[in-house]
From TrEMBL:
PANTHER family: 1-ACYL-SN-GLYCEROL-3-PHOSPHATE ACYLTRANSFERASE, PHOSPHOLIPID_GLYCEROL ACYLTRANSFERASE DOMAIN-CONTAINING PROTEIN. The lineage of its organism: Bacteria, Pseudomonadati, Pseudomonadota, Gammaproteobacteria, Enterobacterales. Pathway: Lipid metabolism. SMART domains: PlsC. It comes from the Bacteria. This is Lysophospholipid acyltransferase family protein. Residues 90-200 form the Phospholipid/glycerol acyltransferase domain. The chain crosses the membrane at residues 12-42. The keyword rRNA processing does not apply.
Amino acid sequence: MNALASTMNRVWRLVMTGFCFALFGVGGLLLSLVWFNLLLMIQRDRAKRRRLARRSISASFRFFMNVMRLTGVLDYRIDNLDALRSERGCLVIANHPTLIDYVILASVMPETDCLVKSALLRNPFVSGVIRAADYLINSEADTLLAASQRRLAQGDTLLIFPEGTRTRIGEAMTLQRGAANIAVRCGSDLRVVVIHCSEHLLDKKSRWYDVPPRKPFFTVDVRERVNIHDFYDATEQEPALAARQLNRHLQHRLTSGLQSLSGINDASALS
């Protein structure tokens, strides 16, 4: 009976996962084709329009996460959420185990900025969202640093996944140095966020239909704020050296945090 119930639950989650993927795609198209075009007509001020677009994206993602939770596709918990919501003028640095990490974080950060891959501009389901939110594009190297500095100075929170792509299962985490360079050269503090998923779901090697035997549970641990002045003093250090040191520190914090969450969740599963 338990085996039958487990099989039926897995089939249900497979069907609901397909439904959620379809919902996400249709929702992205509707936002892009209807709501964001309507914003262009009713709000001429670019800054206000961008703020409304980001809040709309966050609200849509909250709805999407609630649908996934209610249908049993997954569940999640965010620790120290108030610290994340209250951040201003700061880099938020997170590891990237699954395809929906950005969705989870943006759903609780109403006006977050984000550094995204240029390849996503060719995706019809998310390109309109990226343009309406005016996210930073990682291929625009000549203007990226100056744009990051302007946005951080005006109080934007910039979300970056410094691995550059989803974590490869079984391989050591490796961070690109872009986030550390932005932090050093813009004089910005960083908030470390560790994301752990209890099952293999939507990772680098998984397809949407690779539904795990058990319902996945995401733990998002909002950790300490890293003071940039602990790593960089312009009178004593070269920015490149400070960025390397900061990058090693971030990698250590993310790796140790992930190991800690993995241990906690493994112990919970055995108890």
